[in-house]
UniProtKB/TrEMBL annotation:
GO terms for molecular function: GTPase activator activity. Residues 49-286 form the Tuberin N-terminal domain. It comes from the Eukaryota. InterPro entries: Tuberin, Tuberin/Ral-act_asu, Tuberin_N. Pfam families: DUF3384. This is Tuberin N-terminal domain-containing protein. GO terms for biological process: negative regulation of insulin receptor signaling pathway; negative regulation of phosphatidylinositol 3-kinase/protein kinase B signal transduction; negative regulation of TOR signaling; negative regulation of Wnt signaling pathway; regulation of cell cycle. It comes from Leptidea sinapis.
Amino acid sequence: MSSRDRDTKSLQDKLKVFFKKGASAPLAAQNELVVTADLRKELSPESPLSRRLRAVKELGDKVLHIRVQDIGPFLLEWLPQLQSTAHIIDFVQLITNVVKFNAVYLDEEIVHGIVNNSCHLCVYSADSGVVLGCLSLLEAVVSYSLLPRTALPTFVAALCRTVNVEHYCQNSWKLMRNVMGADLGHAALQELVEMLRGEGGEGGGLLRGAVFYINMALWGPRRVHSLHVSPLAVLPAFLKALGGRQAVVTYEVVVSLQSLVARAPLDLHELCWDVLLDIVRAVLHHDSQ
């Protein structure tokens, strides 16, 4: 077997491994592009250049017959099935390119599913390449205004967790800032507030992320100016979040209050100060116990 034949066989084997769901579930025959012996002969180095070019053109025409409308369901079906980290990273990059250049073929239901799967990988994957790839995919979805309103809770919750990891903090804040500065900004802020008002079942990391985003968006150094929201609208949620007695949440609340008083003192009227002092008292009470 020649070196060229070995390389060709190796490539075919790699493609088969990448695109197979399992030994018991081969691809449907009607979706396969069969490479016949005649086609191999036409594409071989021994074949004249003109015949090879014609064969390549005919092969390309067959590939173009694949319905582009089917690309969305295909991506959504395969993303949760991949196990190899390298395959996940490559596939996420493929989806990102589809979002950027062929978003017209992705309906809202498909985008919702892609966002859900990407958020799941952001939260549960231990590989930084996978997480950063998924954050880039989500950024593409947001940049092209494709994020469905129904996917917002999952999206916001995932970013509240990734922002706690130093390696993903800047990317997460950039992505959240883009969302909060767009049409879904107030809805995203409401999701954050609702998290803090929960019944205490949420994890400390989730609540800490929510406090961080509210702080940064409303009165931080790069605040979102399109959000015209009084501190009084969110401070009671900070007080409620302290009820879980989680140290990381308490710390983030204190940092946020310090930033609020230092950066936006003129936005604090009498009622705001009342709630702010209630929060300080709650923090001191927790510390004393």
